[in-house]
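Quick one, tokens below. Sequence please?
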């Protein structure tokens, strides 16, 4: 007998001959009788006898009060954290190790990318300054130079002369991207050459804070007569005009290191043809052994046209005797 027939027997759905046959089997086979009894008992439990249960008194009110209380209670983020954390601390340590390893692998690439971007920004700044100098040179016989009554002006004020001529309007080009913003870049404005030079005498501290841009200037060279003068508007040969600010110490003058603008790795140099070239040391040509000192190892204008000297912004056009 299969299970369906047993279920029909328990429900009384079998025809009479088969039912009597199974009833007879139940009287002679105790095992079959016990099985049939269990099936009937299970089936009768499933039958709806129409009996209803009444809930305890006040159950609905207590349920609503519990819901209202749970809603009024403030929840913190910890209420949503499962009681048992689905991972172990060892799993967390493995994930953290993988993340840190990836980060350490990525950081040098990010740093190199940032350095390349800053280097490109520095080249762009010098190219913009070169464009301003070229415009100035088309209208003047020489590159920016102070009048005779202000010969002691600092070489960094070449930027103010360009600004006064209306040829340097974007002051951000005076700020190398590798350094923090200089004061004039942050201020977004520049006073005239005379005003800034007067500030040098009236308020040296404010002057030093203002004239803090990151590029030095070639203030010219000494003629055969011994007289100092600026670079001609169209020099006979290729010569450095502007470069990354020299390393400078108030007591030592220009010290024997590369520009600090690029962490001492080298300096960008703007030449009179408008090109910008990178030099990993201070020797820029066989005839010019030091970009920041003249051939007599002095922080002075060049001894001749081929002796290019880029002076710090705080050194006068006539040079310094600090070295």
């Amino acid at each position: 007998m299969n299970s369906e027939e047993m279920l029909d027997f328990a429900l009384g759905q079998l025809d009479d001959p088969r039912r009597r046959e199974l009833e007879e089997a139940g009287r002679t086979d105790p095992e079959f009788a016990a099985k049939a009894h269990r099936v009937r008992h299970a089936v009768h439990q499933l039958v709806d006898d129409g009996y209803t249960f009444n809930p305890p008194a006040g159950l609905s009110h207590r349920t609503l009060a519990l819901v209202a209380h749970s809603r009024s209670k403030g929840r913190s983020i910890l209420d949503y954290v499962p009681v048992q954390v689905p991972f172990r601390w060892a799993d967390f340590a493995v994930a953290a190790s993988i993340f840190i390893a990836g980060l350490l692998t990525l950081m040098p690439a990010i740093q190199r990318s940032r350095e390349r971007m800053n280097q490109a920004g520095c080249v762009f700044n010098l190219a913009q300054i070169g464009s301003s100098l070229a415009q100035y040179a088309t209208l003047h016989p020489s590159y920016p130079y102070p009048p005779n009554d202000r010969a002691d002006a600092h070489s960094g004020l070449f930027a103010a002369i360009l600004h006064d001529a209306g040829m340097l309007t974007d002051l951000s080009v005076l700020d190398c991207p590798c350094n923090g913003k200089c004061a004039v870049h942050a201020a977004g404005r520049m006073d005239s050459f005379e005003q800034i030079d007067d500030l040098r005498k009236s308020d040296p501290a404010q002057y030093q804070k203002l004239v803090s841009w990151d590029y030095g200037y070639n203030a010219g060279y000494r003629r055969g007569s011994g007289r100092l003068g600026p670079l001609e508007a169209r020099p006979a040969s290729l010569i450095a005009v502007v470069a990354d600010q020299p390393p400078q110490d108030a007591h030592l003058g220009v010290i024997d290191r590369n520009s600090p603008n690029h962490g001492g790795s080298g300096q960008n140099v703007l030449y009179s043809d408008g090109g910008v070239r990178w030099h990993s040391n201070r020797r820029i040509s066989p005839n010019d052994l030091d970009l920041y000192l003249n051939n007599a190892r002095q922080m002075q204008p060049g001894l001749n046209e081929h002796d290019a000297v880029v002076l710090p912004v705080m050194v006068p056009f006539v040079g310094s005797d600090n070295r």
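Strands lie at 215-218, 221-222, 228-229, 240-244, 248-249, 253-254, 267-271, 276-279, 310-311. The radius of gyration is 46 Å.
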